[in-house]
Each structure stands twice: as C-alpha cells, then as structure tokens.
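Late entry, written up from scratch paper. The run itself happened at the end of the previous shift, but nothing got recorded in the book at the time, so transcribing now.
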Amino acid sequence: MPWKPDYLTDTEAADFVRAPGVDLADLATWCTAASRAIDKRCNRQFGQVDTLTARTYRRPAVYDVVSGLWLLEIDDVQDVTGMTVGGTALASSGATLLPDNAVLDGRPYERLGFADYPDGPVIVAAVFGWTEVPAQVVGATKLQVSRWSSRRDSPYGIAGSPENGSELRLLARLDPDVSTTLAGLARRRRVG
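Output as recorded:
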C-alpha cells in the first residue's frame, strides 16, 4: 500500500453510488479528492511506506508529568520491524513507543517517550503508516464520493425539492456523516 493512497477505487465507488452511466474518470477524481479531504480532516494519512524510511523530527520534546517522560510526536507507525531511533535499534534506544496498547486498540504509535530530554533533532527510521486502512475511513470515503456524485445533478448545490419540502443546501465541507464516521481518528495537529 502506498503513502497517501486513495481509500476507494472508481469501481468500488460506482458500486456504492449505484448511478448507471457515471463516468469512472469522474469517480476516480472524487475518490482522490475525498481521500485527501479525509487526510486533512484527520491530520494524518492512512497509507504506509514500502520500506524503512528515515525521518527527522526537530520539534522540541514536551515533558509529560503523568508519565515522567519527554514526549516527541512522530508520524504514525504500526509496523515496528527494524525501527531505529537515532541510529540505534528501538529495543536498545531507551525510547518508549506511545500510546500504550496502541497495537491492541488497532491504532498506530504516535509518540516516542524519553527518560532524558533528547538533544537536537531525532532521526527515526521505520515503516511509517498504517498496515491497513481502517474500515471507517473507507466508509467515510464512500459517503463523501456519494455526496459529490449526487451534487453533480443538483442545481447550484441544492439537493431535493422545495415543492416536496426536501430541499437541502450542500455545504462546502465534509458531509456531517463523514465527520461522525471519522470520530476518534483525528490527530491534534500535524507532525513535522
């Protein structure tokens, strides 16, 4: 799976929207746009790099009184095979992967904890990203693509009929159901 993939293919989208004659090229564009909108909403992406990749983190670590550790935000990591911190294997580096129980919860590690303040930039080599795209991300992508597909036939961003009392204005934001579907997946801020 690549970094920043589309979370839905044009054929999957066509099956979901059930609109005969919809142009697959349009659906492919909407799939990409919806995937990037979800990334922006969540302040993260749900793909994975193919190999160990070194990344440099220059932001200062923040001391956490509860854990007694200096915390450094890193990009999401679920596969820790071969991971190094500062050129040293993770197990020997003295760094702690956080949050605790991330693997059991189906979540990625988002931070490193250090007993002592890490001086200078910290270089982490890992297979960054998610091992698989969460189901709610795929579902949210389907909903957003469906919304855009419906809007295509609505006049000036209005769906429904005023005569039948079903008029609905389509806003320039993610569908509220998409935001609800993504609840709990957003990071506080972007890393790096």
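The first helix runs from residue 10 to 17.
(Scratch paper discarded after transcription.)
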